[in-house]
Design brief:
The complex is a heterodimer of chains A (about 120) and B (about 130). With about 120 residues, chain A is an alpha+beta fold. Helix content of chain A is about 40%, strand content about 30%. A five-stranded antiparallel sheet of chain A has the order 2-1-5-4-3, sandwiched between helices. In chain B, a hairpin with a 4-residue loop joins strand 1 and strand 2. Chain B has helices at about 5-15, 45-65, 100-130; strands spanning about 20-30, 35, 70-75, 80-85, 90-95. In chain B, strands 2-1-5-4-3 form a five-stranded antiparallel sheet, with helices on both faces. Chain B is about 50% helix and about 25% strand. In chain B, helix 1 (about 5-15) runs antiparallel to helix 3 (about 100-130). Chain A: This is Secreted protein.
């Protein structure tokens, strides 16, 4: 099992083309941990903003009467992929992993696969 | 208070930009209301209590060597009340519901605090000029 810090480090080093990664509590919009990002991507701002994205989608599904769960959300920009993966399991509800990838260097299928593995190993 | 309308505009913008934010009050650090949005009935009470909490907060930050005051957050069962620094003489106190996006609240309120500080700073300079 990996703690938050290890999981973020794992995502940052093992996934190709990562710009930044964050573990976010979407009940409060605050990040439990962030790694990478730097000047061009403020991960605390991303955490707050993407909390609104997740909440909007949860609400939309309620309105549509969809009794289902969000596994992940992919946002494709001109030069980046943003991947949001909602966590499941004991002590992990209400959290999501946020991954920003450089589109030219990333392998999306591989990134999703690796993020799933990192989530399974993560203990908060 | 020549700038009251402008400060209230900053507060109104803060409120529209942050979902679940119910009220915002700009007050001086000694507990006087500068502006409130919406015009809440108890703005004076909120400003006075803010000044009291600020006194304790400042002393606590000072005693534990945490430096100058930035913000104060109280999380109750029915929501949040938070105070943000807006320059050396003024603070911003906001009331928010329990479901508020605290990350966004911090982001928007810090920005609004800086804007209010700018407005009041301009005022101080103008008073000295006259």
């Amino acid at each position: 099992m990996a703690n938050t810090e290890t999981a973020l480090k794992d995502a940052m080093t093992s996934i190709e083309g990562v710009i930044g990664v964050a573990l976010v509590d979407y009940t409060s919009g605050m990040a439990l941990g962030t790694l990478g990002g730097g000047k061009e991507l403020d991960l605390n701002v991303a955490a707050a903003g993407n909390t609104d994205v997740v909440r909007a989608k949860v609400r939309t599904m309620e309105l549509l009467g969809l009794k289902d769960e969000i596994e992940d959300i992919l946002i494709t920009l001109g030069t980046q992929y943003h991947l949001i993966r909602l966590l499941r399991g004991r002590g992990k509800n209400g959290l999501f992993l946020y991954l920003a990838l450089d589109k030219s260097r990333a392998n999306l299928a591989m990134a999703r696969h690796q993020l799933r593995a990192i989530e399974a190993d993560l203990e908060v | 208070m020549a700038h009251e309308a402008e400060v209230r505009e900053v507060l109104a913008r803060l409120r529209t930009r942050t979902a679940d934010l119910t009220a915002a009050v700009a007050a001086s650090v000694d507990g006087l209301v500068l502006a409130a949005d919406p015009p809440v009935a108890d703005a004076e009470g909120i400003a006075a209590l803010t000044a009291a909490a600020l006194g304790v907060g400042l002393r606590l930050a000072d005693t534990t060597d945490r430096g100058a005051f930035r913000e104060l957050l109280v999380h109750g069962e029915n929501g949040y009340v938070a105070t943000y620094a807006a320059g050396p003489a003024c603070v911003l106190t906001v009331l928010a519901g329990p479901r508020v996006n605290v990350g966004r609240l911090h982001m928007e309120a810090r920005r609004a605090g800086a804007r209010v500080a700018e407005l009041l700073d301009g005022e101080a300079v103008r008073l000295e000029d006259s």
